[in-house]
Amino acid sequence: FLYFIAMPLPHVGDRVGIIPANPGDEIRSGTCLFLGATEFADGIWVGVELDAQWPGKNDGAVQGVKYFECSPGQGVFVRPELVETLASASGGEMALRADIEVLRDEVAKKDA
């Protein structure tokens, strides 16, 4: 299977905004700390430590599996299509190639 994501993927360390489910709500901001597959649901997920003013749901762990480190109640996992990069902390083409390899590996694991 080939998977296509319309928006560019964030990189770990990037400042990101989470697009709200309700159009009238504010965009929540934070830092991308995880990008990849999880054990709690299929597909690719973005783990974000939200800025202090935004409540999250976890500390980077879900169902006993730690995906990233953050303050308790400041972490969330969202689908990539709901995340927009606000400021990049990474280096262009090299980071993009690394993301492609991560996604290829995850797809290969799921298809095996």
From TrEMBL:
SUPFAM superfamilies: Cap-Gly domain. InterPro entries: CAP-Gly_dom_sf, CAP-Gly_domain. Gene3D superfamilies: CAP Gly-rich-like domain. Residues 36-79 form the CAP-Gly domain. Pfam families: CAP_GLY. It comes from the Eukaryota. This is CAP-Gly domain-containing protein. It comes from Neobodo designis (Flagellated protozoan).
